[in-house]
Design brief:
There is one protein chain. Helix 7 crosses helix 8 (268-281). The protein is built from nine helices and twelve strands. The two termini are 18 Å apart. The chain is globular and about 60 Å long. Strand 11, helix 8 and strand 12 (290-293) form a beta-alpha-beta unit. The relative contact order is 0.15. It has 312 residues and is an alpha/beta fold. It has a five-stranded mixed β-sheet with strand order 3-2-1-4-7, with helices on both faces. It has a five-stranded mixed β-sheet with strand order 10-9-8-11-12, with helices on both faces.
């Protein structure tokens, strides 16, 4: 049986799976890469776990596909841009390290692009040659599939839609150093940020006021319970999200928009709220674009990485 190794390296954990040619995950393991505050190089953890997985395989896989957080040079498989919280990841030569260690061909792409490819091949965008997959979690990532292929761009920054500017008047800086990026309003941290501003500017009663360590989930839960201020906060989030998605779709005109990541667990309210404002802002030809929630969850990156290496 022909198999491949799919590796998904996130900001806090690495997931490795052995995948067969039908796309079934035969064996998988997950391990933290932040267990000691990133003092241990992430690739050390990745290599060790891959070694353990390979020791359990009856036959050697034919190749390795890697989905990795950060900006990736897809030609060299090197990390050329990262967030501020784990500096030792910058410059990591993923492809070279793994090829030298395991003597297998290795392909590396950004995690959001891998998730998009996974959803396009095995998930909610299956059968669609043109799709937009948006991962909404701590940040906002995106993968744009055109003609069945993910757009990487010359600098490996294709699909970095989370850093489109929505508000030129924003005073606080985004993690990328710019001001007013999508991530500052539509990510989990962005939603909490908006909620805190609403709470500070209003005296209206809200169950959110009693929560000391407010989370994005708290805001959505309060909205489901009919909390008026929470609903007002979420309406602002939906407006930002809908406008942002409309701007991207005006350029890409996809068959489907797939929302994934931790925030997508809010489900239909998120989907319907975003779609409502999307229709307000998008070019008329794109108004009926289908919206869907991602179906592969945390496996999306591993599936995308597998598909990439399968295609060479």
């Amino acid at each position: 049986m022909r198999t491949w190794l799919g590796i998904d390296i996130g900001g806090t954990a690495v997931k490795i799976g052995v995948v067969d040619e039908s796309g079934d995950i035969l064996l998988s393991e997950t391990r933290s890469v932040s267990f000691d505050g990133y003092k241990t190089p992430i690739m050390t953890t990745v290599s060790t776990l891959a070694e353990e997985i390979l020791a359990k395989c009856a036959e050697k896989p034919e190749g390795i596909g890697v989905s990795a957080t950060g900006q990736i040079d897809v030609h060299t498989g090197t990390v050329i841009g990262v967030g501020a919280h784990f500096g030792n990841w910058l410059g990591s030569e993923i492809k070279e390290i793994l090829e030298d260690k395991f003597h297998l061909p290795v392909t590396v792409i950004n995690d959001a692009n891998a998730a998009a490819l996974g959803e396009q091949c095995y998930g909610r965008a299956k059968g669609c040659e043109n799709a937009l997959v948006v991962t909404i979690g701590t940040g906002v990532g995106g993968g744009i599939v055109v003609g069945g292929r993910v757009i990487h761009g010359i600098h490996g920054a294709g699909g970095e839609i989370g850093h489109m500017v929505l508000n030129r008047d924003e005073g606080e800086a985004c993690n990328c150093g710019k001001h007013g990026c999508v991530e500052q309003y539509c990510s989990a941290t962005g939603i909490v940020r908006i909620a805190k501003k609403f709470l500070a500017a209003s005296t209206a009663p809200s169950s959110l006021r009693s929560i000391e360590a407010l989370t994005c989930k708290d805001v959505f839960d309060a909205g489901k319970e009919g909390d008026a201020l929470a609903l007002e906060i979420l309406e602002q989030v939906y407006a930002y999200l809908g406008e942002f998605l409309a701007n991207v779709c005006n350029v890409t005109d996809p068959e489907v928009v797939v929302l994934g990541g931790g925030v997508s667990k809010a489900g239909q309210p998120l989907l319907e709220g975003a779609q409502r404002y999307y229709k307000k802002y998008v070019f008329h030809a794109c108004r009926e674009t289908r919206f869907a929630l991602a179906s592969l969850g945390n496996d999306a990156g591993a599936y995308g990485a597998f598909k990439l290496v399968l295609e060479g």
